[in-house]
């Protein structure tokens, strides 16, 4: 494909990040949608762009039809939260490995410094993988003690968990009420009726 040399360098550098995220997550982060998943993925783009390029907030935002204030807001309010999402964390680490392997001449003038940073990063990433594997093994070990509903709950999105919790709260209340009224508590009737359930 012939490259249009009239485009600014920043376009190609930032487009690479956008293409990676959109291809990996099968989304379009340039839409005006405010869905939580898309907001988080746009924040991931901002984070990767700020960490792996030297472009301004304005240029980074412009690539996804946002202004510099959107990038600044995400940096202050969203970056920490998205890194608690395991899927986004994997996207982040996988891209960082790709960047470290492909952009030496563009972002590191000192080859020795690059090698030191690369080794440190790869060691940390290996530890992260080991810890993640151990955590999965622990969760799988606990899985045999969980009911099918409990296992299903752990696979729900944050939004669906909130909805699930609201519904279960009502069910738990009904069970508590039932337990409180199993010891002969008067529910209806007069002094001659000791247990309304006895008439059923």
Q: What would your notes on this structure say?
A:
With 200 residues, this protein is mainly alpha-helical. It folds into 3 domains: 1-107, Chromosomal Replication Initiator Protein Dnaa, Chain: A (Orthogonal Bundle), CATH 1.10.1750.10; 109-145; 148-179. The protein has 10 helices and no strands. It has helices at residues 9-25, 36-52, 57-62, 68-77, 79-82, 86-102, 104-107, 111-143, 148-153, 158-180. Helix 2 (36-52) runs parallel beside helix 6 (86-102). The longest helix is centred in the middle third of the chain and has 33 residues, at 111-143. The chain is flat and about 75 Å long. The model is unreliable at 1-6, 102-108 and 186-200 (pLDDT under 50).
Strand content: under 5%
Radius of gyration using CA atoms only: 27 Å
CATH topology of the largest domain: Chromosomal Replication Initiator Protein Dnaa, Chain: A
Number of domains: 3
Quick structural overview:
By secondary structure, the protein is an all-alpha fold. 68% of the residues lie in helices and 0% in strands.
List keywords for this structure.
mainly alpha; 10 helices; flat; disordered N terminus; disordered C terminus; 3 domains; 200 residues; Chromosomal Replication Initiator Protein Dnaa, Chain: A
